[in-house]
Amino acid sequence: MASTPSTPPSPQSLPSKTTSLRTSKKPRNILTNPIPEEDPKWVPLNLSRSELYLPLTFPTGQTFRWKQTGPIQYTGVVGRSHLVSLKQLENGDVGYYFHYTTSDSESSAAKVALLDFLNVGISLTEVWESFKASDKRFAELAVHLGGARVLRQDPIECLIQFICSSNNNIKRITMMVDFISSLGNYLGAVGGFKFYEFPSLERLAMVSEQELRAAGFGYRAKYIVGTVKELKSKPGGGMEWLAALRKVDLPEAIVSLCSLPGVGPKVAACIALFSLDQHHAIPVDTHVWKIATRYLLPELAGTSLTPKLCNRVADAFVRTYGKYAGWAQTLLFIAELPSQKALLNSTEEKSPNSKKRKLGGITKVPKE
User: Fold this and answer.
1) Which of 43, 63, 343, 354 lies 20 to 30 A from 199 at CA?
2) Chain-wide mean pLDDT for the chain?
3) pLDDT at 31 over 80
4) What does the alpha-carbon distance between residue 250 and residue 358 come to, in Å, rounded to a whole number?
5) 222 against 9, higher pLDDT
6) Within a domain: residue 204?
7) Bridge-partner residues for 76, per DSSP?
């Protein structure tokens, strides 16, 4: 099994929690005091490209709420009400710019929320060094796919998004998530996109199954309505119940999540990995199954995926990659995306050894 990397307070020297978000002393609200988007004052996060590369983090299926609003720039909401853009700067660092803050105390909270969302307490470099020592193929891919970070999302947002993702495609998932988001308070527009707070459970409870079906949710409408009802009935509230799953063992978290309407093992694993600190959760679908049978369990190649074999696949990832197996699986999944496969193949063609091997053994492209 791979050695377990430590989790230092931060991968590099990060801004202190009390540092001002912007050079201006006054908080900003884009609804009343807009600043031209073409000339924002980007504040560096002091995160190298190997710790966070935006194109390998945001458009890769972890979240459907963030939008690309410029060249290597993505915009979304953190802490439920802080509208922020992130941009990969020329020096490789990531800069941030808050479009919407309402007070000095909110500004401090916004930065804390951003750092929490980006999971900066985990050193990606250190985690990947452990992976590379355990798997030569991962070491080959890591050279080209640095900075693919796993996010730490709001559990309710993550839960609703992945119920929408079940047996669905990216375009339709995004449409559904945009509709749900539009039920929350409006925060502003960036790059032609409108952004909202994610609606509260109370607001979601006001939406009927018929309304969701009319908006194109299909059978998922009843699951969302049922899940919201279940969460509202939880002692202490749904947010408290979900947050508590960050402190239990993974099997207990999966069982608890699967008690909600529309949540099966794969969706539960996605929620656990992307919002509940269950870093070794492995969302097993046909794409991950192909990766596993190609590299980790070749003896199962040609067989069909079953619930029992899903557990075997997850165990194989954990045996190979250890405590952060879900992070390794995420990179391997990204490597199979059409855009990344094209990039990897292009890189390999320029390699002097290109006639001898295929980089990382990638030979197939999964359907999205």
Assistant:
1) 43
2) 84
3) no
4) 35
5) 222
6) no
7) 84
**266 assigned to active site:** yes
Give the Cα separation of 197 and 180 in Å (integer).
10
Model pLDDT, residue 27: 42
Full domain range(s) for residue 313: 122-147+279-344
Kind of pairing between the strands at 82-88 and 94-100 = antiparallel
Are 216 and 228 spatial neighbours (Cβ–Cβ below 8 Å)? no
Q: Which letter does DSSP use for residue 75 in this model?
A: E
Q: C-alpha 366: how far from its chain's center?
A: 19
Q: How many domains does the chain have?
A: 1
Kindly state the average pLDDT of the residues 13-40.
Answer: 42
> What share of the chain in percent tops pLDDT 70?
80
Note the Cα 62 to chain centre separation in Å. 3
Selection from 332, 245, 248 nearest residue 324 by Cα? 332
What CATH number is given to the structural domain containing 128? 1.10.1670.10
Q: How far apart are CA 277 and CA 334, in angstroms?
A: 20
Q: CA 165, 167, 170 angle in degrees (round to 5)?
A: 50
- Residue among 85, 77, 11 at smallest CA distance from 48: 11
Classify residue 296 by its DSSP letter.
I
Among residues 222, 229, 234, 266, which one is catalytic?
266
Task: Look up the pTM and report it.
Answer: 0.84
- pLDDT at position 308 is 87
